[in-house]
Amino acid sequence: MRGFASPLGLVWVVLMALTLFSLGFAESTLGQKVTIMIIFAVAIAKANLILVYFMEVNHAASHWRVLYHLWVGVTGCLLILGHGLS
């Protein structure tokens, strides 16, 4: 077992750091809309990392990779726009 030195271990550390960043940002004094949009952006980045490294989308056929990343991107953008415009 390689521990944190393996690529998956490093991605896990990045995911935990992004989670803590989101938590810290949620407690910030910025406006609610800005905070929500930044937290959604971090969630999009985390979803892409999980898709590529833990769900092994990078081993899927190219059309599936495109669809997975497109789904995450479009869904995330709709969430950000939906909360930003409300």
Characteristic terms for this protein:
3 helices, 86 residues, mainly alpha
Strand proportion: under 5%
Which regions contain 5 or more consecutive residues with pLDDT less than 50?
Answer: none
Fraction of residues in H or I helices? over 70%
Shape: flat
The string of secondary-structure elements, in order, is HHH
Radius of gyration (CA) equals 15 Å
**Euclidean distance between termini CA atoms:** 48 Å
Briefly note the structural class of the backbone.
Answer: mainly alpha
Q: Main beta sheet, described?
A: none
Number of strands: 0
Overall mean pLDDT: 87
Question: Tally the helices: what do you get?
Answer: 3
3D architecture notes:
The protein is mostly helical and 86 residues long. 78% of the residues lie in helices and 0% in strands. The model has no long low-confidence stretch (mean pLDDT 87).
Topology:
Layout: H1 7-26, H2 32-54, H3 62-85
What does this entry show, briefly?
The protein is an all-alpha fold.
